[in-house]
Structure formats: C-alpha cells, structure tokens
Design a protein that fits this description.
mainly alpha, 4 helices, 2 strands, 96 residues
Length: 96
C-alpha cells in the first residue's frame, strides 16, 4: 500500500481513501458480525464526530504513521467512511 501511495504521489495521480470510522450513533446498531462487535467493544476506529478532529490524532481512527506522509497530500481524496467491508472491496465505489 505504501508503494502504491508513493507511486500515485510521484506520478501526480489521485488516490481515493474511504476510512473505517465509527461514530457514537454507529454503536446503536442492533446487528453486526463478531469482528464488528469486537471493534465496537474496544473502541476501534471511534471518532467523536464526522466534522471534528478532536481526539483524532493518535487514536485508533488516525492514519497509521507509515501512511501519513502520503494520505495528507493534495493528491489524496478522503471520502466518507465506508460501512460495508470485505477482503475484495468496501463501498468506496458506491460513493464515487
């Protein structure tokens, strides 16, 4: 992933990211798989609010340090958080 982000930055290509965040209202879901329930219970990817970065830096929702130099560049578009997940894709394509 780092090589892909570096190549996109080097060539001036746009990179699109749909992060996985949980907001307070997401914890009210009455369904979920075992992994999703675990992530909710330990606060993984929790954000206070979609418009606030309060508490974001260094949290489980923050970018991994290795990717920060790339993800904070002008060629990266951060879309809304995805809620559909799987090894083959997330719902970024639906957002685009």
């Amino acid at each position: 992933l780092e090589k892909l982000l570096a190549a996109a930055a080097d060539k001036g290509y746009l990179a699109y990211v749909s992060p996985h965040y949980y907001y307070p209202w997401d914890h009210k879901w009455e369904f979920g798989g075992s992994l999703e329930l675990l992530m909710h219970s330990i606060g993984m990817f929790d954000r206070e609010d979609p418009l606030s970065l309060n508490g974001f830096e260094g949290s489980g929702a923050d970018w991994l340090d290795v990717y920060k130099p790339y993800l904070e560049e002008d060629n990266v578009i951060v879309a809304s958080p995805h809620k559909v997940y799987g090894p083959e894709q997330n719902d970024l394509v639906l957002q685009l």
